[in-house]
Amino acid sequence: MNTKLIGIVLIVIGIVMVVWTGFTYTKKEKVIDAGPIQVSADREKTVNWPPYLGGILLVGGILIVVTSKKSN
Question: What is the pLDDT of residue 72?
Fold first, then answer.
């Protein structure tokens, strides 16, 4: 894989992670499972990451793009 492409992907992922610091999704979980009777409920789950992680990916992607440009 081309290193310039990897750098660009890291830049895009870094920008997305800085702008959106997490997301929420809904998962259906069984509350009661007693033979033929099943009760389920929707539970909201949250995934968060620190914004500085996106910044690190962004800077790393920029460094990869800049250094791959010099070596070509």
Answer: 52
